[in-house]
Amino acid sequence: MTRLALLLLLTSSNAVLAAEPRAVTRQMTRPVLIRNEHNSLIQLTIAAQEPFVQVKSITVAISGAENLQSLQWYSTGADASLSSEKPFGDRLPAAASLAFRGHLRLTGGANHLWLSCRVRPDADMTKRVDARVVDVETTAGRIEATDQTPELSKRTGIALRKHWDDGVHTYRIAALATSPKGTLLCAYDMRRRVGRDLQEDIDIGLLRSTDGGRTWGAQQVIMDMGEFGGLGQEVNGCSDPGLIVDPETGEIFCFAVWMNGRAGTHQWNKGGSEPGFEIGESAQFMMVTSQDDGLTWSKPRNMTRAWKKAEWILYAPSPQQGIALTDGTLVMPTQGRDAKDRHFSNLLISRDHGKNWTVSAAASLDNTECQAVQLADGSIMLNCRTESPTKFRTVAVTRDLGKTWRPHATNRNTIIEPNCNGSTYRFDFVDKGRAKSVLLFANPHSQKGRTHHSIQVSFDEGETWPAKNRLLLDEGRGAGYPSLSRVDDRHIGIVYEGSGSHLVFEKIEIGELVK
Question: Domains plus CATH for the chain?
Answer without folding.
Answer: 3-147 (2.60.40.1290), 172-321 (2.120.10.10)
